[in-house]
Amino acid sequence: MNAVIISVGDELVTGQCVDTNSAWLSEQLTAHGVDVVCHITLGDDVERIKEAVGEALGWSRLVLITGGLGPTPDDVTRYGIAAAIGKPLEESSTALEQIRALFARWERDMPESNRVQAQIPTGGSVVSNPRGSAPGIRLQQAGAHLFALPGVPSEMKAMFEAAVVPVFINQVRTAHCTKAARIHCFGMSEAKLGEILVDLMARGRNPSVGTTASEGILTVRVVARGVNEAEAVQLLEEDVAEVRSRLGHIVFGVGEDSLQQVVAALLLRQGKTVATAESCTGGMLARRFTDIPGSSAYFLRGYVTYANKAKTELLGIPPSDLDDHGAVSEVVAQAMAAGCRAEAGADFALSTTGIAGPGGGNPPEKPVGLVFVGLADCDGVQVRRFLMGEHISRAGIRDRTCKWALNMLRLKLLDSGL
After folding, report:
1. Residue of 18, 30, 20 lying closest to 225 (CA atoms)
2. In the CATH hierarchy, which top-level class contains the domain 259-417?
3. Above 90 in pLDDT, residue 30?
4. Sorting pLDDT into bands at 50, 70 and 90, what band is 142?
5. Which terminus of the chain, N or C, has fewer Cβ atoms within 10 Å?
6. Sheet architecture: strand order including 144-149
7. Which pLDDT tens digit goes with each residue over 259-276?
8. 3-state SS of the chain: helix, strand, coil percent to 5?
9. 82: β partners
């Protein structure tokens, strides 16, 4: 079975909003053995929606549309679908009752404008939306299934699982099975990683292997197809094991794993604690630790020592170190980590100091993007120097500094746990 995903919304084509729905739907469909052949992104334009839907129904068996089902004049997806199949819209009593019931639960009067959300093409049926006011639309046309779902991700995901998956899952599983995995890596360039996996990435190979890069994280995608689930699982597991073997400690997790989740699990497993002393990251590193539920078991405290005075008063850094070497230096990063560990009484301490920009750099010695990360433990302090380049934004430099710090601690914990 093949599928087309259509995303609707002026905010998508003007760059005001990122289309995460298509990525999520593609991942789900691929895991269920459906071949996604096309993503289409459109503005709120009836004629263009009509054309796209008409074409998609002609050469795919499953068409998924997200967005444009709201109550405002710019929500025109229903009109485009009706035009594509040549059927008028009619008010669905089922949909209207669902909308009214939702507003009753909210203890609010339903605005008359919400009534338009009960309009569906003649011959179609309603997809219940338990989380919002926009019912979905389902219809069949010339052997193809079409589902229109709200653009709100939480609503769309719940409706997809409840209403869309049951329609096609049995058909797909009788034909073949697809299994997929995502392997996350940090600390290597995409080009180098590609050289290591080049033979696995050959076109036409099963499993198919590819890579994506996002904000410093490299993800290896493995998609295996088999005549049944057992074969697909075996092929997938063999390739995942091979990728892990070749990349070693560059791999930090799979699926939904984040660096902070992986580090948190290692800290908990080993019964260790950590504290942070931050300058350029301004508390972002501490937040990543505390974003994880149960972080009080391993995260003791965080110091945001942005000003030099704070570095001296809270971490005991000699003013002479700051005067002689500057706040952005190996010496100060080392002192920050050591002082933080001593003050907090933690097993580990991480420090960050750097020039996040866009101003403040002093090339060539201290350009924007220069960062030092310190890691203190019972054996002393190690400091790493990173030069990220002025092409990376302030937010990007701060984000990657946190990732480098987390990765340094991850590698240390792995070494300690061997």
Report:
1. 30
2. alpha beta
3. no
4. confident
5. C
6. 35-42, 2-8, 62-66, 144-149, 136-141, 125-127
7. 999 999 999 999 999 999
8. 45, 25, 30
9. none
Lookup result for tokens 């190996």: 330
Of 59, 81, 77, which Cα lies nearest the Cα of 67? 77
| Amino acid sitting at position 343 | E
Residue recorded with tokens 């590609």: 194
Q: How far apart are CA 11 and CA 17, in angstroms?
A: 5
Please tell me the distance from the alpha carbon of residue 55 to that of residue 84, in angstroms, as a whole number. 9
CATH of segment(s) 177-254 = 3.30.70.2860
Query: What is the helix (H) or strand (E) element at residue 349, kind and residue range?
Result: strand 348-354
Angle, CA of 193, 194 and 199, to the nearest 5°: 125
Q: How far apart are CA 379 and CA 293, in angstroms?
A: 29
Query: Hey, what are 60's tokens?
Result: 């795919």
Q: Where do the DSSP E strands lie in 24-175? A: 35-42, 62-66, 89-91, 119-121, 125-127, 136-141, 144-149
Please tell me what DSSP assigns to residue 164.
I
Structure-token pair, residue 147: 């589902």
In CATH, the architecture of 2-175 is 3-Layer(aba) Sandwich (3.40)
Radius of gyration of the chain measured on its C-alpha atoms: 26
The position carrying tokens 């009067």 is 109
The CA distance from 149 to 81, in Å, is: 12
φ, ψ of residue 42 to 5 degrees: the values are -130, 155
3-state secondary structure of 297: helix
